[in-house]
Structures are given as C-alpha cells and as structure tokens.
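Quick one:
INPUT:
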C-alpha cells in the first residue's frame, strides 16, 4: 500500500521550478489491480472435473493410436514399386497418422491447462541476484505447489497417457528412417556411379532436350539430366537414377574461374557443371546468385562458390559439390567426359 503522502495518490500535484512558474502535473493512470477471479465449471463441479480428466487422457491415448497407425500405414502402403499411386497413398496415410498424433497431444495439453490446472492469478516479485537459502527453499516449494496444482504428479492417468503419447509420437519418425537409404546396398557404392558416361549429352530437365554450348549464356543456370534418362520408365528406377545424376550447369567468364581451385580441363569456355545434390544431407541445391556466383541449398543454407570449384563457404556441408567433367561434341552439344570421379550426395555416407 502506498503512503498517504505519496504524490501518486493525489489526483493533481503542483510543482514550482526555479523560474517561479507553477506547473500542474497530472498523475499517471492508476493500477486497476487484478479483476475478480472467475471460477470455472470444473472448479465447482467435481463431475465436470472428472469429465475433463477423461477427455484429456482419451486425447493422449488417441495420439498413441494415431502414432501406431502411422507405423502400420508405412508397412501397409509400401512404395517399393515406385509407382506414383503408392507414393501418394503412403504419404497420405502416414501423414494423417502423424498429424492426428500431434494434433491430439496439442488439443489435450490445451484442454488440460484450461480445464484442470489451477488458473488463479498471482504476482511474483523477482530480483537479479542469487536468492538466499530461504528464498531458494521457497522456490522448491513453489515447484511442489505447481506440481500439485497442475495435477501432473497426482493425476496418474493424465500423466501416464501424456508420457505414452509423447513417446509414441516419435516412433513414426524413427520408422521412416528405414527409407532413407537403399536396403541391402552399400551406400558408397550406390552413390559412386551414375548414368553419366563419356560422350553422353547434357539435356534440360525435365524435357530431355540436349543443350548446345552456345545456348548457355552468362549468368544462366540450367537444371540438367543425362540425355539417356528420358529412355527410362518410372518402374525401371527413373527417380533413383535422376536423383543421383541431376546437375546444375552455369556459365562464367573464363577469367572468373580462380586458377588452382578449378579443374579447368573439366570446363568449356567458362561453362561448369556440378552435382545438384547437397553434400550435407542430399537436398537439391537449386538457387544460383549470378553476381556472387554462389549456389545456395535452401534446406540448411549451405553455400558453395562456383568460381572456386564449388567450395563450401558457409553452412554445414562438409565438402564441395562433385564436378561433372564436360566438353563439346562435333555438333556443339555439351557432353560428359566421364562419370563423377567421387560419390555424389551427403558426405556422411562415406563415414565409417
């Protein structure tokens, strides 16, 4: 409570500065204080409280069931055949399970906080220095009170169902890790060879139209695939081969390629080709900044300098993008000199 002579308690105050002029000062807006506490239905009706508790743990167990369904859907709707229908079904049913699992946890947690936990308002004074031992003990008691008011330690069904829902919500994600790498295949071996070979023309993605060197202008960036890729059917591993062989083609002035940091014999008149697969976790490197000659991976912001052999200049990528050796054929079309000379894709495949 403020002192009775406190100027904030007066409606008006008069101040006389050294000039002798009287200045009338209005007091700031008074603190209205906390509004009267409104009791909830669950505070006054034990039956309503029981219904709220049942609703919360039912939502948490629904989340558990949805997580189990997501795992089952991953197995019931496999995508091994590579067909577009199976991919859509797998994504749909697995996604619905994960979405429902997370949504049920969120709704249950909100309903718990609004209908079951204590909602009384209080003011807690704070200070910047370490408190005394008595203050620290008071803080421990505050945690104990919070546990009692939230019901986390007392309401076993709510607590246990929440823990079960949180644990189960992680399982679908762990299950999906199964599809991150080919089964029964050495990843290093699989990523060491692509469709590129000597004399194969570079073609536009997805049209499959070969590219002449004269069509690659300064500052441009082409998304490129092997010309022979268009002959593959989707059931013959089209997506897998494209994911490994996809390339970005750019043209710089020849004197912008830093000597010693570029394999000049792998370029043609300033035209360079690098794997589009980021060496961090395999995301597509798709953004090219022609003024700085930087390539950006949008997933984790790794940046590569094209003028310096696609060297990493920022981000978590561990090594430069693999370069595709190129030249031109007798008709002026860009062709590969060979396959990549190192594995494409994430560097962690090469770790042992």
């Amino acid at each position: 409570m403020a002192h009775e002579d406190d100027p904030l308690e007066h409606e008006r105050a008069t101040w006389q500065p050294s000039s002798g002029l009287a200045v009338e000062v209005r007091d700031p807006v008074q603190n209205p204080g906390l509004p009267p506490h409104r009791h909830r239905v669950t505070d006054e009706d034990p039956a309503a409280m029981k219904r709220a508790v049942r609703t919360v743990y039912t939502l948490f167990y629904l989340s558990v069931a949805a997580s189990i369904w997501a795992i089952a859907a991953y197995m019931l709707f496999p995508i091994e055949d590579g067909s577009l229908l199976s991919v859509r079904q797998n994504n749909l049913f697995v996604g619905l399970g994960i979405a429902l699992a997370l949504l049920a946890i969120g709704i249950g947690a909100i309903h718990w906080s609004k209908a079951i936990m204590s909602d009384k308002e209080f003011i807690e004074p704070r200070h910047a220095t370490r408190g005394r031992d008595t203050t620290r003990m008071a803080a421990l008691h505050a945690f104990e009170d919070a546990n009692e008011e939230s019901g986390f330690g007392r309401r076993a069904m709510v607590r246990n169902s929440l823990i079960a829902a949180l644990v189960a919500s992680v399982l679908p994600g762990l299950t999906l890790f199964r599809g991150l790498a080919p089964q029964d295949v050495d990843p290093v071996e699989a990523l060491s060879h692509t469709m590129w070979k000597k004399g194969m023309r570079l073609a536009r993605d997805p049209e499959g139209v070969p590219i002449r060197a004269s069509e690659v202008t300064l500052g441009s960036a082409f998304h490129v695939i092997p010309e022979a890729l268009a002959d593959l059917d989707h059931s013959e591993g089209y997506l897998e081969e494209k994911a490994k062989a996809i390339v970005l083609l750019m043209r710089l002035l020849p004197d912008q390629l830093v000597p010693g940091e570029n394999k000049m014999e792998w370029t043609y008149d300033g035209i360079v080709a690098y794997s589009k697969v980021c060496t961090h976790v395999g995301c597509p490197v798709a953004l090219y900044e022609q003024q700085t000659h930087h390539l950006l991976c949008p997933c984790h912001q790794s940046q590569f300098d094209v003028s310096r052999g696609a060297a990493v200049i920022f981000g978590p990528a561990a090594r430069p993008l693999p370069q595709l050796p190129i030249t031109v054929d007798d008709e002026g079309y860009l062709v590969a000199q060979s396959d990549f000379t190192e594995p494409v894709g994430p560097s962690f495949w090469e770790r042992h």
